[in-house]
Write a structure and sequence with these properties.
18 strands; six-stranded parallel sheet; globular; alpha/beta; 9 helices; single chain; binds zinc ion
């Protein structure tokens, strides 16, 4: 089969002819329809994330059809439309049995530690595939499996519930999904904190309260808009100590700040006045869980989670086109996602 692979860190991906994977009794072989091109793929190619196994086929946002199912697989059959949970996990270690597969002792990220979706076919454990309803196009099924799933996990980690108010720091792919998911949970007011005018305008047009962090202190703006109280939940999706601190400071009593963005910076908090006094919580968020995907898929099926069609760009399973798309992450365009159309 054809695949587009990372053979050397810092070099363009290359096209390769590789053997069709052999599946075991608990695996499935998926004929790939669509695979999203993610910013983290650019980090893998550039060597910003450590790559232990080369060559490897990149791509972890995948949807397609079941081509072959191992003898032990009962929940899907040949021809079924599916999307793929990107963490291959053992299913039996002390974390997996508790449904916490992101800490699996032998977990492997698809498209990093094992071959991913920039290919015609992929082998994954059967437990990684979820039925994709007919109403959800493959390209949406594919891109939902990363940033939307992580946005949902962040809301779940923050114990977000109907009637809660929320501040979302950063309106990129994660923030865009987080906003819609917060709405799907029947939230109260949503504040979107951004410095990018186009993203502020887009958030406002969707019904969020846009907080322009360039014009005044976002904490002051949120406090003012909430009569001095603050919000119930804040999501930090940017990855900077400054905005993480702002996410904590804009919380009201019993507020929860979920930190999703990555940074190596140190964040400072005054324990008594900024945290203890209001019984606020700071929560780390990493990836998402397989058990959360059915809810996400249902939100997409019912139209609560949408991606405007003008936000998608398509490329072929072609190394030159994919490399050009990865190069584009240096100048990200607002809310534009590129998807490889492998088959239709
Ligand atoms: Zn991704
Ligand atoms: Zn495990």
């Amino acid at each position: 089969m054809r695949a587009v692979r990372l053979t050397q860190v810092g070099k363009p991906l290359q096209e390769a002819e590789v053997d069709l994977p052999e599946i075991g009794v608990s695996d499935v072989l998926v004929r790939i329809a669509a695979c999203g091109i993610c910013h983290s793929d650019e980090h893998y190619r550039a060597g910003i994330s450590r790559m232990d196994r080369l060559p490897v086929t990149l791509g972890h946002e995948i949807a397609g059809w079941i081509e072959k199912a191992g003898a032990d697989i009962k929940h899907v059959t040949r021809g079924d439309r599916v999307c793929i949970h990107y963490l291959a996990h053992c299913g039996s270690c002390e974390f997996c049995v508790r449904g916490l597969e992101q800490f699996c002792r032998s977990g492997q990220m698809i498209g990093k530690h094992r071959d991913g979706g920039y290919a015609e076919f992929i082998k994954v454990p059967g437990r990684n595939v979820f039925a994709l309803p007919d109403g959800i196009p493959f390209e949406i099924g594919a891109i939902m499996m990363c940033s939307s799933a992580t946005a949902l996990h962040a809301l779940n980690k923050a114990r977000f519930k109907a009637g809660d108010s929320i501040a979302i720091f950063g309106f990129g792919g994660l923030g865009f999904s987080a906003f819609q998911l917060a709405r799907a949970f029947d939230c109260k007011d949503v504040y979107v904190v951004e410095i990018n005018p186009a993203k502020l305008a887009s958030a406002a047009s969707m019904g969020a309260i846009a907080i322009d962090a360039r014009s005044a202190d976002p904490i002051e703006q949120i406090k003012e808009a909430t009569a001095g109280t603050g919000v119930d939940v804040a999501l930090e999706l940017i990855g900077s100590a400054k905005t993480m601190r702002q996410a904590v400071l804009c919380l009201g009593p019993l507020g929860r700040a979920a930190l999703v963005g990555l940074t190596a910076e140190t964040m400072s908090i005054l324990p008594y006045t900024e945290l203890i006094n209001k019984e606020a919580e700071i929560i780390g968020v990493s990836d998402h869980l397989a058990t959360e995907l059915p809810t996400l898929i249902e939100f997409a099926r019912s139209g609560k989670l949408r991606f405007p069609s003008d936000a998608l760009r398509f490329v072929d399973l072609d190394a030159e086109q994919i490399n050009a798309s990865l190069d584009g992450f240096q100048n990200p365009i607002d809310h534009i996602r590129t998807v490889i159309r492998v088959a239709s």
